[in-house]
Task: structure prediction
Amino acid sequence: MATTSNPGRAKPATTAKTATQKAARTTKTTTRKSAATTRTTARKATSSTTSTQPKTAVGQAQVLAERVVLVPVGASLLARDNLVSTVKVLATKYRTRASVERELKRYERRGATARNRFERQVRRTRTKFERELRQRRSTVEKTVKQNRRRVEREVRSVRNDLEKQSGTITARVEKLVSEASERIGSVS
Result:
């Protein structure tokens, strides 16, 4: 055991962590060391720790075999713990008839709340759909009415033009017929 400046207290031997801390302190106090030297010192301090992975193939196989056995055991123990805690919670929650009735009422309220929320959502959706349908219907009716008015106006305009043109054509034909009959009458 190494002693410190306090004569009455003993300090444990230096570990890899304290060696790293000392190396870091030394690099801070020494201003002339380069960055590469600092990295090398830190690397040496951390590499002195032991690795958890075995170096030999036999050791690695042994670790793998242990894992194969321990993983299912640990998983089954966790499942058992979860099951036990669930059963304990249920046993304390449903210990008496009053607590069972209280929980049933709680579930019923929760169900009623969910049902009401769903019904509101359905009503809201139906109202929105009906509103959009009415808007679209009125838009279509408005467009049809405008188009019908436009077509009727154009038909009236064309009819008036035809009547005017037929009147002028009739007048011309009568004039031509009268001129032809005058010429025929003057020739004979």
